[in-house]
Design a protein that fits this description.
five-stranded parallel beta sheet; 8 helices; single chain; alpha/beta
């Protein structure tokens, strides 16, 4: 690809590895921010080169408060130093499951309010990967171009590499079944959905599952594994319905607390997922695929790179 000296790619600290992978896919250099911490916990940032008149791309995850604030600082700093455009790709958006508040609850829908903070820093373009809900994309007044990038194709390729046979994809609930259907279409395999009801912030009940899993290798698919509660219930429903073997799959492998151990205790020996959440790499349990090609393809099209 022809080099563009006016295209600058950086990452926040959490997404440093992802930013490097995207830079390699684009065949452009990664610009590493000058960063250091002070004794009182404050963080110093400086652009190591002049970005005035440049198209700046920021790859950033916002999995915690520090990463979220760092992204806002980077966008604001780019505006301060007169970048021509500020373009953000967020592989993993923190608080993305809190996109609405229940009536009279007093809850803060942080999926919306946090995303609105990002938009108010005035980026020109923001892309998200496999959002829990697209509602967060609309937390602005039309001045920001947004994109929702899907990762089904690289996920399907990862499943093919595992050389699994007689598979069926399972959605833990009907709300996610359309995404599972798209993935099943790429793989040419059947799919089905369980019946899930949520009765508290982090509590769900997964009801019965159809007999479509009988005698098959079931892969339970979701957008995220946080604590794994509903997915682990779906594991039980799969075996009750006659599944031969059960695996798990999710784009965002948060795996909070002892989630990993809970899956192992349930007999799950394979969790397929993306590298969108910081620190997730393949090991004896995880089979991790890269979303850098998805991001790079989008940036090539957006900036008309050849």
């Amino acid at each position: 690809m022809s080099q563009r000296e006016d295209l600058v790619l950086i990452g926040n600290r959490s997404a440093a590895r992802m930013a490097a992978d995207v830079a390699r896919e684009l065949d452009i250099p990664l610009t590493e921010m000058t960063t250091r911490g002070f004794a009182d916990g404050e963080l110093y940032h400086a652009f190591p080169r002049d970005i005035a008149g440049c198209d700046l791309v920021i790859i950033a995850t916002t999995e915690d408060d520090s990463a979220h604030q760092e992204l806002i600082d980077l966008i604001a700093g780019a505006r301060y130093w007169n970048a021509l455009s500020v373009n953000v790709v967020i592989p993993y958006l923190g608080y993305s499951t809190m996109e609405r508040a229940r009536p009279d609850s007093g809850e803060i829908p942080k999926g919306i309010t946090r995303t609105r903070q990002i938009f108010r820093a005035r980026p020109d373009y923001v892309a998200f990967l496999d959002l829990h809900s697209e509602s967060v994309m609309h937390a602005h007044t039309g001045e920001v171009r947004t994109r929702h990038l899907w990762t089904e194709r690289v996920a399907a390729e990862k499943i093919r590499q595992l050389e699994l046979d007689n598979i069926v994809l399972v959605s833990p609930d009907y709300g996610f079944s359309k995404r599972v259907a798209r993935l099943a279409g790429l793989l040419g395999c059947p799919h089905t959905a369980a019946n899930k009801d949520r009765y508290d912030i982090d509590q769900t009940i997964v009801g019965q599952l159809s007999g479509a899993v009988r005698g098959r290798n079931a892969i339970i698919c979701d957008d995220m594994i946080r604590t794994g509660g509903s997915m682990l219930q779906t594991v039980d429903r799969c075996y009750e319905a006659g599944a031969q073997h059960v695996m798990a799959m999710a784009t965002h492998l948060v795996l909070a607390g002892n989630a990993r151990e809970r899956f192992i205790d349930k007999g799950i020996d394979c969790i397929i997922g993306a590298d969108t959440y910081p620190g997730r790499v393949s090991d004896d349990l995880l089979r991790v695929y890269s979303v850098a090609p998805v991001i790079a393809a989008e940036l090539k099209q957006y900036f008309r790179l050849h």
